[in-house]
Design brief:
Strand order of the largest sheet: 5-4-3-6-7
Shape: elongated
Oligomer: single chain
Strand content: 5-15%
């Protein structure tokens, strides 16, 4: 009968099996991150038991007592008792819930309690820094081995071949992804956003620019990712120009926050696309200029502007609906203008970009009127890295963000495409991106005059 492997060796065998499989690389990397967390924590717990008993696994008490040395190579006190199997314990970490095998002890004079996790652990922060640091530093074989070996001993480190495989695979996959042809991608909606991370020593947090979208078939797609020194017009222009240069066609609608550099660059590179300003970001801007005591009321009034429920089934997207909501914006301004003029001024600036989404299918409204589509995923990325403070470098930062977003993109929900919605999108596409020849801009003054006269 085959002998059961100790938990640490069993996890190492799982990691080796992952890289021997034919599964998608991104899924393998994510699974290895979780297994790496299990490996670290399991090794730490086993080491605590070794120290508690004063001897290593399978070492006899008489031998350990005679040498005065435990499994760690340090002098230790040998206690009575022995290991009696394991019981599963779930631990919540920044890599998600993981299950470790908690050692069970019998006939000990003292009760064993893990200093790392306590007696009834369901959550731990003790090793999260180490887990995340090793994942982030996956670009460096030396860093991964050093981080684990320094903390838990050389037996906790992944093998050089495994670490090397992870490093080389991530770099190769990311580089290929950044160069891929985008000519086959046709978007109805393009979402643009940035999130800031510390990636250079002694410098402030810098942005990672991201683009994702919804195709004409309603499918979500992760489009682009790049590091930048700032969210300036030049930075966003270079980012969007690269996407267009690889074949990305103009979308119908660009959804973003109000960053001036982003707006300017988007209007230059995709001049024919409509623009929607994120309602969530604008709400934050408005409420930041309102006293705490009135914020709840102003917030409710703000979102009431865009509530279409009173129209019932009579909602018809288009200019009339846009005009109706714009009148509500005027009513909000009249109500709160005297009390909070700065907040109202903030709302009225660039007001027309707040209602662009009302020209699109109503079933898409709640998802295209803000850019929060990816913010939750950016939040997941920040959650993974916040305890380490700063990335080892730009390459490490972009690679981790890409690995997390690319994996998360596989779980993003697409958009429902109804027959009526498809007709609306088709008409918008024809009007914006493929207008009749006589409506296109021309350099011929005579022809332009004739067109205007007609």
């Amino acid at each position: 009968m085959a002998r059961t492997l100790p938990p640490v060796q069993a996890i190492q065998a799982e990691i080796d099996a992952l890289f021997a499989s034919d599964r998608d690389l991104v899924e393998v990397i994510e699974d290895v991150a979780r297994l790496g967390a299990r490996l670290i924590i399991q090794t730490a717990v086993e080491a605590e038991v070794d120290a508690f008993l004063g001897r290593a696994r399978y070492q006899r008490a008489s031998t350990a007592a005679a040498t005065g040395v435990g499994g760690s190579g340090q002098e230790s006190t040998v206690r009575p008792g022995y290991r009696n199997g394991h019981c599963p314990t779930t631990v919540k970490t920044t890599s998600g819930p993981i299950t470790i095998a908690r050692p069970k002890l019998r006939e000990t004079t003292d009760k064993f309690a893990s200093r790392l996790f306590g007696t009834g652990v369901t959550r731990t922060h003790a090793l999260e820094t180490l887990v995340i640091a090793s994942f982030v530093r996956g670009m460096s074989v030396r860093d991964v081995e050093g981080a684990l070996a320094d903390a838990l001993g050389p037996e906790a480190a992944l093998s050089k071949s495994t670490v090397s495989t992870i490093c080389q695979a991530i770099v190769a996959e990311y580089d290929a992804w950044c160069r891929r042809d985008l000519a086959a991608v046709e978007l109805d909606y393009l979402f643009l956003d940035a999130s800031h991370f510390k990636m250079h020593d002694g410098q402030r947090a810098e942005p990672i620019l991201a683009a994702w979208g919804i195709t004409t078939a309603g499918k979500p797609v992760f489009i682009g990712l790049a590091a930048a020194g700032s969210e300036s017009t030049d930075a966003w222009h270079d980012f969007l120009t690269d996407l267009a240069g690889r074949g990305l066609r103009p979308p119908l609608l660009i959804v973003s926050d109000g960053a001036p550099g982003l707006i300017s660059a988007a209007e230059q590179v995709f001049s024919r696309s409509l623009r929607q300003r994120c309602l969530v970001h604008r709400a934050r801007n408005v409420l930041a200029k309102v006293s705490a005591g009135d914020q709840a009321e102003v917030k409710a009034a703000y979102w009431q502007i865009f509530d279409l429920t009173e129209l019932g089934e009579n909602v018809r997207v288009g200019q009339q609906l846009v005009d109706w909501v714009q009148r509500r914006i005027d009513a909000f301004a009249e109500t709160w203008g005297n009390r909070y003029p700065a907040a109202v001024k903030c709302l009225l600036s660039d007001r027309h970009s707040l209602t662009t989404y009302l020209r699109f299918p109503i079933e898409h409204h709640k998802r295209v009127r803000h850019s929060n589509f990816i913010e939750r995923t950016f939040g997941e990325t920040r959650r993974r890295v916040k305890v380490i403070g700063r990335f080892p470098g730009e390459t490490s930062c972009v690679s981790l963000v890409w690995a997390v977003l690319d994996r998360a993109a596989r779980g993003w929900r697409g958009f429902t495409m109804t027959s009526q919605g498809l007709r609306i999108l088709h008409d918008l596409r024809r009007a914006l991106l493929a207008p009749p020849a006589q409506l296109r801009p021309t350099d011929d003054p005579a022809l332009a005059s004739a067109t205007e006269a007609a």
